[in-house]
């Protein structure tokens, strides 16, 4: 599942294809897009539960549905205007049979922090930021801003592709209620499943149960899987 500014993701997915593989499963990607962050259709963590997800064709009762969470905004102090553009990146909610939170589903290793982005912004990005804060941002500006916050978010796609390509290593994830509990070892004796393409083989674990969260660590560079 992917959500974000439509202009940015259109550019990204124009060249996005699944890798060549002997047997590619039938995979359905759900792509949420929105052109105007101020509109009622703008999906955020706050209003997602009120949105009619069934109209999107999302059916958590038939084929296995797994969500890979790469990045979401976590309440960093930012000007209100800037926070609106990154609030749509990622959802904390559990909405699939398996919800995989890669490195906690927040900032990803290998991606720059927001503070680092500030120092790296070029003139075009700064101009786009100012235009956005003044309410006069255009489509190009949305793309400029989105690019700087996409590293962790697009990591979800990258690890999914690797779950198909890299047969030598599997992304084992542990069922846990929170990233903090996972890190402290409190969930070491909980169920473990493989994230990504092979998750379907573990569906019996979540049959007739509420959505469950699974956490795992990865490296900050490809191949991401930890041996």
Automatic annotation (TrEMBL):
Compartments in which it is found: Secreted
Chief subcellular location: secreted
One biological process term in Gene Ontology: lipid catabolic process
Keyword Secreted tagged: yes
Start and end residues of each Lipase domain: 87-224
GO cellular component, one term: extracellular space
Entry keyword set: Secreted
InterPro entries, alphabetized: AB_hydrolase_fold, Lipase, TAG_lipase
A Pfam family matched in the record: Lipase
Any one GO molecular-function label of the UniProt entry: lipase activity
Similarity comment text for this entry: Belongs to the AB hydrolase superfamily. Lipase family.
Protein name (database record): Lipase domain-containing protein
Organism name: Nephila pilipes (Giant wood spider)
